[in-house]
What we know:
Blueprint: E1 2-4, E2 11-13, H1 27-51, H2 58-84, E3 89-90, H3 92-103, H4 110-122, H5 140-151, H6 163-166, H7 168-171, H8 174-181, H9 183-202, H10 205-232, H11 264-269, H12 285-296, E4 299-300, H13 307-313
Antiparallel strand pairs: 1-2, 3-4
Residues 120, 124, 235, 248, 264, 268 line the site of one zinc ion.
Amino acid sequence: MTATVEGSGSPVDAGGPKPIYGAPRANWPQFGTYLFILVPFVALIAAVPFAWGWGLGWVDVALAVFFYTFTCLGVTVGYHRYFTHGAFKAKRPVRVGLAIMGSMALQGPILHWVADHRRHHAFADRDGDPHSPWAFGTSPLALVKGFWHAHMGWVFDRKLTNAERFAPDMLADEDIARVDRQFGLWTAVTLLAPALLGGLLTWSWWGALTAFFWAGLVRVSFLHHVTWSVNSICHMIGNRPFKSRDKATNFWPLAVLSMGEAWHNLHHADPTCARHGVQRGQVDVSARLIWIFEKLGWVSEVRWPTPQRLAKLVK
Length: 315
Ligand SMILES: [Zn+2]
Ligand SMILES: [Zn+2]
């Protein structure tokens, strides 16, 4: 018998109800969570006065923009629209490539990310949602606490979403399970590749160090906060032109940096839709990349929005 993974639209074999949580996170991965979130964050703050000094050049900027775009699309097109929601079908090398690109954003191994996000949709802004800003109530103090929790507090929760319940389709795919196990390798690659390129392009150790700092640490941290802002800001502030059962919003100032993910109200109204920015002038770079992949024949069965469907979703 086939059913749908809650909230995601992805088909799986239903094996009866399973618990929400799986095995808790072990000590080393828990330590790694702190290390790779807090160290880049401190680097980001240190970067501000640093920027006006001596350790930043065009090579660093170009590498940072390149790795930001590459890994952000890995999350938005790969982890999110494809793996979590099944917005299109992809050929095997594209599937594995997207899993690796998403891993290089350092937002956790793919199985965790997908299981967490499917749980978010299954329980959006209700009990069981891993990161709702409304979890503590609606008083000003509860909302401050909720904002912190939705933005990054939830990441430190040692109770991990049960992938067997929320991502059985991914667990069953040996290629994806392998990329998941290789998360340490992709962590090293995403931090060392900018250093290597910076060193080669400037032919200096100093160039390697500044590229590691800007295109490695600062870039990772900046993308963390943009992604987390979709969880925090885009469930609190913005417009809600579409019918969704939760408090998801469209928040235009983040549209470009989030590569289209800030059109979050439409996304919750129609989770499997490949395009989130569906209205006039709503920039959605991720949807454009999916369109290019479709033209190249790399992906198929893309769930593009239709006027009839949108008419039903609009308030
Ligand atoms: Zn959401
Ligand atoms: Zn989603």
